[in-house]
Amino acid sequence: MSAGADIVVARPGREMPVAPLLFAGSLALYVMTALATGQHAYLTGEGFVGLAQRMVALGIVALGQTLVILVGSIDLSVANLISVSAVLASFIMTGEPAMIAPAVLAVLALSAAVGLVNGLIIARLDVNPLIATLGVGLILQGLLSASFSNFAGSVPAAFQAFAYGRIGPLPWSVLLLFVLAFAIWLLLSRTRFGAHLYATGGNRDGARLAGIRTERVMIGAHVLCSLMAGLTGLYLASRLRAGAPWVGRDGVYDLESIAVVVIGGTLLAGGRGGVWGTLAGVFLFATLDAVFNMTGIDAFPKQVLRGAIVVLAVAVYAVHSKGHVA
Amino acid sequence: MSAVATQSRPSAALRFARGINVGLAVFLVLYGTIAVLQPGYFEVEGFLNFLRRAAPLIILACGQLFVIAGGGFDLSMGSLVTLTVLGGSMLAGGNPDNTWWTIGVLYLIGLGVGLVNGLVVTLLKVPSIIATLGMLLSLNGAALMWSGGAPRGYLPENFRALGRLVYRDVPVTGIMPLSVIILIGFVALAAWLLHATVFGRQVLAVGDNPRAAELSGVPVGATRVLVFVISALSAVTAGILLGGFAGVSTAVGQGLELQAIAACVIGGAQLLGGRASVTGAVAGGLSLFALFTLLNLMGLPQPLRETVQGLILIAAVASSAWRMRRA
Questions:
Q1: Which of A154, A282, B4, B144 is the most exposed place for a label (fewest CB within 10 A)?
Q2: pLDDT of residue B209 exceeding 80
Q3: Which residues 3-42 in chain A show a CB within 8 A of chain B?
């Protein structure tokens, strides 16, 4: 995607603060719908905790997707990796609390390896990231579906605490999402790797000429992204109490994670954007789900509306950009 | 990638040759293997039947090629195929008298979808990957809403004939499927449009560098809108053929958009625009379909076919990137 870096030129000083606007707009929509339909349970503390919990799965994978899009790449293999991780975790655990640590380590090691492969294919073999990660995703899904056709193994009760346990009023999983978001924000804004990531995404050739090892940055971003997908798989296994080979695809985590990153104001071409916009995009999707539930809209019109909202949410600020968009 | 593209500017003929080579070579190897396993494929009749089944994918690849050449993506093709098949069976309701106006309405829907995609990208400046992703979600929802979640009605015989009719006792070739005639006509039209008209040059110029194209007087917006219209119309055409021999189902178009993009890329098209050839897209579509046929013949379980498809996809693109670097 690096070739598109010069296409969109936003005027400095006229940039919209995407994250707060998106967050406030979503919140207003949520509150107004709850008041209009008289479902005040949604406005209690418990209601908001439920709303935050809807953000976790998509949120974690979208944080990783933010990194690869910032560096000028993209990852279509996350949905398949999520399925692989969820199945692998519950297959290794088979209900044994003693196997939690080995299962988690195995999932994280496999995720890192997949990210490494993605990064190497893109950076070393010069394969377009869309095709490379699409191909890796197909390979993963094929191997997984050939080995498992249904729920595999199970998750011990101790591990279900990851999805259902709470510390005070706050679920562990929500806490994890915000800790990860904060850590990635630190990584992006306070470390050399973060600066190199923005530089590589903004202008890969320029960054290379400036002495940045762009290949390593690209590979590092992909490893982190795949680790996030692995964590999402672990979370889903914990929430569903077992992994199944379709959990990732059913959640459309590949396309939805890309959509929320772009809705959050990160340039698809790389080099500009950040974590908070992505979280605001995830918040928008979570509130939409809740609003559809409150109003009782059918599944099919919901899909039509969701498609239109994805486009409009991006259009709201994209329409101001100068130049041409591909 | 941009550096590679600007460093080497080989002659048009050389680029053209390089464009068809990977896809064509892959196709010949795959088809040769198929024919060894099933000698019927060596005969003209076997080849024409293969073409008949490959026609929808090749037509989709040719349509997608225009969008890719212009620097974008069209992810909504597969869902438009589904909408065409479901909508066709609902509108025609099994009555042969309804076939022709039904096809007219389907093309009008396609025109509308293409226009919306193109206008969202050019006027609202939404990246095409997101614009057509939104369209994909909406069209899938609309198709299911229209049909009530499950396919209803059926396609009349003269509608299905477009995809499945085979003329017998034809001189030279023996048989001639109607869909192969449609395929040849469509490919010829696409090749003429991309390689022999000013519009085709403008598409490639817009894909290569929209700012430069605009400064040299290319109507960038109109060109972008038109490529999405071409892509949508090709999806309707593919949907009509698929309805003929695949029957009516809600999953008929699923994943076809990615196969079409893969076919273009295997055929040497450069993602994000500027380099594309119709011959390459046809070769890419043929090799992808030959791959599916081969894996089917070898009796590989369905999931492992996905794995092999992924491997071939990466290998084809990596080899073409390697050749580009060496050049």
A1: B4
A2: yes
A3: 3-4, 7-8
DSSP B247-312: -S-TTTTTTHHHHHHHHHHHTTPPTTSS---HHHHHHHHHHHHHHHHHHHHTT--HHHHHHHHHHH
pLDDT band at B3 (very low <50, low <70, confident <90, very high): very low
* B104 has a chain A CB within 8 A of its CB: no
Over pLDDT 70: what percentage of chain B?
93
Give the one of B141, B273, B302 whose C-beta lies nearest to A307's C-beta: B141
| pLDDT greater than 60 at residue B19 | no
Least CB–CB distance from B130: residue in A134, A310, A320:
A310
Chain A residue nearest residue B142, CA to CA: A304
Compare CB distances from B129 to A131, A268, A303 and report the shortest one's residue: A268
Question: How is residue A115 written in tokens?
Answer: 């990210």
Res A87: pLDDT:
95
Residues 284-313 (A) with a CB less than 8 A from some CB of B:
298-311
Q: pTM of the full predicted structure?
A: 0.85
A125 with B321: Cβ contact below 8 A: yes
Contact A319 B321 (CB under 8 A): no
CB distance from B321 to chain A under 8 Å? yes
Say how many CB pairs under 8 Å bridge A and B.
190
> What confidence category does residue A15 fall into, taking pLDDT thresholds of 50, 70 and 90?
low
B323 CB within 8 Å of a chain A CB: no
List the structure tokens of A1.
């995607």
A145 close to B (CB below 8 A) = yes
pLDDT tens across A39-76, in order? 888 899 889 999 999 999 999 999 999 999 999 999 99
What span, in angstroms and rounded, lies between the C-alpha atoms of A84 and A64? Answer: 17
Q: Please compute, for residue A84, the number of CA atoms within 13 A of its CA located in the half-sphere on the CB side.
A: 28
To 10 degrees, what angle do helices A172-190 and A275-295 make?
Answer: 150
CA distance A70 to A204: 11
Residue B124: is it exposed, middle or buried by C-beta count within 10 angstroms (0-12/13-18/19+)? middle
DSSP letter (8 states) at residue A88: H
Is the per-residue pLDDT at B249 higher than 50? yes
Q: How far is B16 from chain A (nearest CA, A)?
A: 20
pLDDT tens-digit map of A105-139: 999 999 999 999 999 999 999 888 988 998 999 99
Among chain B residues, CA nearest to A147: B303
Residues paired with residue B170 on neighbouring β-strands, in sequence order: B174
3-state secondary structure of B78: helix
In this complex, do B318 and A137 lie within 8 Å of one another by their Cβ atoms? no
User: Both tokens of residue B69?
Assistant: 């050449």
pLDDT (tens digit per residue) in B130-185: 899 899 989 988 998 888 877 777 888 888 888 888 888 888 778 899 999 999 99
